[in-house]
Backbone:
């Protein structure tokens, strides 16, 4: 892997994400020609007083926020998945494996059961994610901090997995006792739903922050994959690096879950697909995963709101339905 | 950080004590390992060979005493600068994901990377050279997950070589290797530590279970008895039948055939029953089948 090849990969994936973004803005129950999409996004002259055209309004206030929410959720989830697979040195790791999403979902469902406003549900989800992060950190800090040259990953993974299982039990309990009228919204939240309404600035900012914090450490991540002892002998501050990966991955997951609910499969499938095709160099993979994950969720949401329009599906159903066969095909047809 | 030509690869243990649980593996050990020396660390299972190597590498702190590399305590070195001077081959390699052999070897160039951490042409050249030294030139594009245990071990050794550190600590570099490759690796290491010309002498320490290969290829040996004691010195003074018999708890004897020598398990006086006699060194065995002819 060279910097030039990585840049070429990023350019291709960036162009793909841009194409999906334009398609998301153009397609729907009211089709808008791509040229008018551009005109709506970048109005050349302000026609003050004139009635705003409906198509432009739909693009700006409905489709753009939703597409950007999809992009940032997918990018954050794919980034978090790639990071956790490195941290736990386990190909099965994904953003929800350490319980961040479980904590967010539990708190969010409580808020929905209590009939809170949408912003309060989001705030609860965020609080739940942080509660879960702190819980795992508190219980497993010995594993993250252990200064001995031995592998600390399995204990951290088990701690997180057990916490996640605990949250899962609470979620089932909440769904069982929830009033009938609220159940549908709660299920949509759990599957992942982008029916927000405002431009998700916080999620986009979280994405940029996560990349800015973790990218300088990407060469160290490559080394960490070879084991703690090897990494330490090569001069990588393993303990600090592991804490940094855990925090970035958890905060990215928290931001994604707060914005779009627990959209499944992206964090597991997207990093693996890129690895199978492009290799496992974290310097290339992390930005590539963000771009591809963002494009994937945007595309899935486009399908979710057009396939049985005007009714809408939760985006998580599409990501899982498409992700399972594609991933299996890539895995089984892989050349050795 | 090139240009350090004086006193690189100098490793010094200052009164170190190693413990595992309640057991004392090594007590109050002081020794200096000099460039140009090739040390075999021998001893029975659990004697502390891995613990000693990790301690000398600065990955763990001894229960007492300290380790110095090039005259400075190992824990005072900034980690990356330390990695430019000492390389460690751990006993096991982790491969959770597939990667090409070249990429795995290139990872050991990490201490030499700068900027955003992309390898330069010289890093690639170093990796290819290390692969060639171990006869792995045509393996560069192979997936590490497809390698056999012995091939993987040689790749790990090539990676350690391409780190270009003047002090190299190898934990069981010969495991999984057949005899042919064991000797190939030892010859590559011997050439590495005694290289002349523009490169200065370098220091090598490796743990090894084959005392005969050690006697043949190491210049010095450190024999651990696992109970606090250690003998250090020229390899033929340390890996003697008497000392090795005591350390390994089984009588060994040295047989000679011309210039070739071998330490072999001695035949017990009474064939079966008397297996709990204290080990003792013996004269030449009457009919050992291991002598070459």
Residues:
């Amino acid at each position: 892997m060279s910097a030039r090849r990585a840049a070429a990969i990023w350019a291709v994936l960036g162009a793909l994400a841009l194409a999906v973004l334009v398609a998301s803005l153009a397609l729907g129950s009211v089709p808008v020609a791509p040229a008018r999409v551009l005109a709506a996004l970048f109005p050349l002259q302000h026609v003050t007083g004139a009635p705003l055209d409906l198509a432009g309004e739909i693009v700006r206030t409905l489709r753009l926020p939703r597409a950007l929410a999809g992009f940032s959720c997918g990018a954050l989830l794919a980034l978090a998945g790639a990071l956790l697979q490195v941290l736990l040195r386990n190909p099965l790791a994904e953003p929800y494996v350490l319980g961040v999403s479980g904590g967010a979902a539990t708190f969010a469902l409580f808020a929905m059961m209590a009939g809170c406003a949408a912003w309060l549900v989001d705030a609860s989800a965020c609080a739940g994610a942080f509660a879960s992060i702190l819980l795992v950190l508190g219980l497993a800090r010995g594993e993250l901090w252990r200064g001995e040259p031995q592998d600390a990953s399995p204990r951290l993974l088990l701690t997180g997995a057990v916490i996640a299982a605990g949250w899962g039990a609470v979620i089932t309990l909440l769904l069982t006792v929830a009033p009938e009228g609220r159940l549908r919204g709660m299920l949509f939240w759990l599957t992942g739903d982008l029916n927000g309404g405002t431009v998700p600035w916080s999620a986009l900012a979280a994405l940029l922050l996560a990349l800015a914090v973790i990218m300088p450490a990407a060469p160290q991540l490559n080394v960490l994959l070879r084991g703690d002892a090897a990494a330490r002998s090569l001069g990588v501050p393993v303990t600090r690096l592991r804490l940094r990966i855990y925090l970035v991955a958890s905060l990215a997951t928290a931001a994604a879950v707060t914005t779009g609910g627990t959209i499944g499969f992206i964090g597991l499938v997207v990093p693996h697909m890129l690895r199978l095709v492009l290799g496992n160099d974290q310097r290339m993979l992390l930005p590539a995963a963000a771009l591809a994950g963002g494009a994937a969720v945007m595309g899935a949401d486009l399908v979710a709101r057009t396939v049985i329009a005007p009714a809408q599906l939760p985006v998580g159903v599409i990501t899982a339905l498409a992700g399972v066969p594609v991933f299996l095909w890539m895995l089984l047809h892989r050349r050795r | 950080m090139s240009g350090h030509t004086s006193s690189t690869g100098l490793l010094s243990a200052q009164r170190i004590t190693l413990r595992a649980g309640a057991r004392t593996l090594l007590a109050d050990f002081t020794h200096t390992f000099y460039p140009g020396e090739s040390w075999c660390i021998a001893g029975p299972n659990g004697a502390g060979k891995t613990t000693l190597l990790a301690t000398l590498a600065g990955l763990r702190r001894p229960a007492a005493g300290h380790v110095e590399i090039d005259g400075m305590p190992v824990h005072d070195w900034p980690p990356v600068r330390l990695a430019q001077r000492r390389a460690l081959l751990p006993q096991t390699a982790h491969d959770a994901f597939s990667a090409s052999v070249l990429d795995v070897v290139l990872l050991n160039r990490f201490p030499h990377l700068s900027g955003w951490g992309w390898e330069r042409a010289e890093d690639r050249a170093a990796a290819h050279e290390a692969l060639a030294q171990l006869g792995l030139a045509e393996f560069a594009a192979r997936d590490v997950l497809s390698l056999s245990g012995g091939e993987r071990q040689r790749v790990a050794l090539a990676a350690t070589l391409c780190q270009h550190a003047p002090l190299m600590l190898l934990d069981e570099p010969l495991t999984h290797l057949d005899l042919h490759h064991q000797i190939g690796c030892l010859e590559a290491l011997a050439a590495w530590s005694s290289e002349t010309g523009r490169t200065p002498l370098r220091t090598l320490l490796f743990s090894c279970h084959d005392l005969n290969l050690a006697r043949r290829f190491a210049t010095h040996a450190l024999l651990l008895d696992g109970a606090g004691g250690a003998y250090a010195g020229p390899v033929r003074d340390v890996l003697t039948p008497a000392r090795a018999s005591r350390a390994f708890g089984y009588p060994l004897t040295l047989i000679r055939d011309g210039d070739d020598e071998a330490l072999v398990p001695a035949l017990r006086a009474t064939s079966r029953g008397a297996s709990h006699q204290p080990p003792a060194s013996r004269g030449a065995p009457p009919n050992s089948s291991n002598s070459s002819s």
The first helix of chain B runs from residue 49 to 56. The first strand of chain B starts at residue 11 and ends at 20. Residues 251-293 of chain B form one domain.
